[in-house]
Amino acid sequence: MNLAVYGAGGSGREVYDLLQHCPKQRQKWDEIVFIDDTKEEGNLHDSKRMPFSRLKELYTPDNTEVIIAIGEPKQRERLYNEVISSGYIFGNLIHDNSFISDYAKIGSGIVIQEGVIISSDAVINDNVYINHRCMIGHDVVIGSNCQISANVVISGGAHVGETTFIGGMSCVRDHTNIGTHCIVSMGAAVLKDVCDYSIAMGNPARVIRKNENEKVFN
After folding, report:
1. Annotated binding site for substrate, which residues?
2. Based on CB atoms within 10 Å of each CB, which residue in 35, 56, 91, 161 is the most buried?
3. Can you tell me the distance from the alpha carbon of 179 to that of 162, in angstroms, rounded to the nearest whole number?
């Protein structure tokens, strides 16, 4: 079985590092390749890099798993649907130095970086990227296609809707609901619910406008 990492930018290079430092993860796959639709065929360090159209010519769905290493939730959602419609399945990539409760539920297409803690009865749905040193409390639910940045704390019973971005060093109060297609800025302290398609920032976090463009990065 091979692993295709969709994304060869910053998040893709972080995934490359994870694979280099976690032999238990690396040995699950015969070959690691990276997908980048913005460039011609080449290499990312010692791995092949190619557009998705080329991957489909060289690697069949029956011997290739995919994960997405891109930080834009809306783009994650689009690529996830494209990969599924092409017949490929998603794998999981979980750093050896992370802790996941035996009673947590983890979907497919999940990336969990170093130092992450996922507590009892938490639910992580499909196609979620959780960056370094995050704390996901008991009974937390994270929807599909989310990007959880480094050093985030999501306290017990909180819900994060699908296709949402949580910025680094932010924290979410217990039993708080963050809607779908939201952006929570870096360092925010979310103490009350955030409705769908909102951008929230500050301490305490306040909604500053609608997330009309659904774009985190310029």
Report:
1. 71
2. 35
3. 8
pTM of the model: 0.96
pLDDT, one tens digit per residue, over 206-216 is 999 999 999 99
Provide the annotated binding site.
Answer: 71
Compute the half-sphere exposure of residue 71: CA atoms within 13 Å on the CB side of its CA.
18
Which residues are part of the catalytic machinery?
138
Task: Give start-end residues of each CATH 2.160.10.10 domain in the chain.
Answer: 94-207
- CATH architecture of structural domain 94-207: 3 Solenoid (2.160)
CA angle 42, 45, 75 (to 5 degrees): 70
